[in-house]
Write a structure and sequence with these properties.
Elements: H1 18-27, H2 39-48, H3 53-63, H4 69-80, H5 93-107
Helix pairs in contact: 1-3, 2-5, 3-5
Length: 108
């Protein structure tokens, strides 16, 4: 019972989302545009390279269950490092995740 009172107890860490972390740091990296110029093009490349799409989809849906936007923003900002920021696409982290899930859903 006391553990529920400790701030941050039970929160997921970036290591709990390896597929999303890889997508953010490699495919969506701001350092290069090897995989496309739009999020849709980049995600199509992600799927073409046979990356763990099902894992990424599951991880994103798990991330979207985080109700606190500050917690979600902090986690994803840490996961992305200096490689990707959704504001450059006119998105928030939550809207970006919804967009990615929709693109992945439409591909199946």
């Amino acid at each position: 019972m006391l553990s529920r009172l400790i701030r941050g107890w039970g929160k997921k860490k970036p290591k709990d989302y390896p597929a999303v972390k890889g997508m953010l740091r490699v495919f969506l990296s701001s350092r290069h545009d090897d995989f496309g110029n739009s999020i849709k093009e980049i995600l199509e490349s992600y799927m073409d390279y046979r990356m763990p799409v099902t894992d990424a989809w599951s991880e994103i849906n798990s991330l979207l269950l985080i109700e606190d936007d500050n917690e979600l923003n902090d986690l994803l900002t840490e996961m992305a490092g200096n490689e990707f920021c959704p504001e450059f696409c006119g998105e928030t982290w939550r809207s970006f995740l919804h967009r990615v899930v929709n693109i992945l859903n439409s591909a199946h």
